[in-house]
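lol forgot to send this yesterday, sorry. struct tokens for the thing we talked abt
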């Protein structure tokens, strides 16, 4: 499809930043869509049908307006088991298209010989291939189309697309995170591990929220969406092997904003996996092998230090770097050392020189002290002064600070946080 119908910002992105390579959709699109749902799939022949079936339960008139694009992917070094599974997926996609009545289903072969992902690439590149290929197929004439990220082992509700369309019809932010809950595991040990991992994710967001961080939102790859304009303004999806969702949403927040989307829930898989160096599958797998002590939680004090640091900045936007650094060291010595290590003084001077007025200065600071630097600070505090602890000690103080009595068990705390964060 020629690019002449596209807005200038979309054309500029496709010309300069879109993924180039041997990848294309299985067939050209003969019409334009209001949005695209991009699903990377690596050895998911057993799970992808459930995802497609769950999408098919959405309202037919709305579903018809969305392109569904599956990116079947692997590296050339993939084990034969994954290669065979991907072959099966590619063979079955036409059948699933008929079975679930998905005329709007397309796919990309990034798994066959000569089309594999480069070595050391993975889900980030697979998402990027799909999102970039979807852009020319969208309808920009009357609205800003949507790009939605889903995973091949994740199921959605029948209100998935209505909630997304309703949210973006009025939301000022260009990006959105969708409520999620991991599906039940197949055995008690797996259930205990996934409960602990999801609680860890939710408590981290709660801690950032209590600290007043603008990055207090979940970063789950199967539960995020944005407008096409926000996608290209952020520079598009990154190619990271893992954590691509974290860095993508961080960049979308800086350029267009990220808001929580309510009204539906997505259900990722609880399974263990060692495909990526960190994330859900890796954490669950490590706990099943080595015990739940493999996943300890941050002490509540580290979030208190983040809160005091952000408050210090808000109170000293016109101060020179030296007194701000001194105040930071007074909050906690590790904070002072960390700021020295990341060249705070130089960055602060540049921020003040280029951003006049308190609002611009504060916004520019948060763009510099972003989600990644916030996480680095929390790691440094934990490694140097406040070792991680069991959830039994870590979670209750944060819930009580938020005004809620803490249930005694991990599952009870998780249930409460799900309820609070989905409200």
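and heres what i got for the seq, position by position
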């Amino acid at each position: 499809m020629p690019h002449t119908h596209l807005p200038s910002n979309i054309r500029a992105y496709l010309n300069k930043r879109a993924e180039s390579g041997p990848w294309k959709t299985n067939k050209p699109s003969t019409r334009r869509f209001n949005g695209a749902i991009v699903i990377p799939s690596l050895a998911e022949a057993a799970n992808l049908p459930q995802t497609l079936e769950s999408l098919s339960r959405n309202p037919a008139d709305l579903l018809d307006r969305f392109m569904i694009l599956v990116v079947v992917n692997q590296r050339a070094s993939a084990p034969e088991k994954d290669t065979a599974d991907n072959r099966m997926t590619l063979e079955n996609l036409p059948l699933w298209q008929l079975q679930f009545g998905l005329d709007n289903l397309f796919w990309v072969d990034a798994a066959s010989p000569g089309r594999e992902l480069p070595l050391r690439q993975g889900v980030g590149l697979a998402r990027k291939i799909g999102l970039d290929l979807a852009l020319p197929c969208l309808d920009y004439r009357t609205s800003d189309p949507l790009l939605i990220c889903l995973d091949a082992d994740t199921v959605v509700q029948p209100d998935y697309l209505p909630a997304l369309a309703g949210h973006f019809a009025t939301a000022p932010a260009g990006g959105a995170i969708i409520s999620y809950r991991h599906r039940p595991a197949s055995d008690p040990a797996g259930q205990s591990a996934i409960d602990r991992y999801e609680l860890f994710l939710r408590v981290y967001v709660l801690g950032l929220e209590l600290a007043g961080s603008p990055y207090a939102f979940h970063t789950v790859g199967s539960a995020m969406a944005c407008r096409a304009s926000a996608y290209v303004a952020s520079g598009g999806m990154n190619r990271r092997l893992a954590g691509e969702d974290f860095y993508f949403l961080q960049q979308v927040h800086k350029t267009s904003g990220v808001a929580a989307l309510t009204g539906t829930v997505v259900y990722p898989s609880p399974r263990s996996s060692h495909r990526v160096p960190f994330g859900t599958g890796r954490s669950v797998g490590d706990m099943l092998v080595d015990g739940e002590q493999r996943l300890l939680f941050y002490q509540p004090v580290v979030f208190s230090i983040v809160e005091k640091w952000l408050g210090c900045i808000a109170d000293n936007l016109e101060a020179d770097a030296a007194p701000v650094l001194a105040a930071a060291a007074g909050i906690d010595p590790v904070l002072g050392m960390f700021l020295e290590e990341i060249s705070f003084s130089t960055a602060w001077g540049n921020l003040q020189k280029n951003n006049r007025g308190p609002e611009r200065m504060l916004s520019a600071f948060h763009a510099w002290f972003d989600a990644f630097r916030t996480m680095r600070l929390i790691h440094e505090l934990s490694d140097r002064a406040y070792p991680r602890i069991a959830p039994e000690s870590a979670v209750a103080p944060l819930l009580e600070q938020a005004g809620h009595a803490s249930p005694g068990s991990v599952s009870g705390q998780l249930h409460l946080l799900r309820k609070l964060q989905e409200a």
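The longest strand covers residues 258-266. anyway ping me if u want another try
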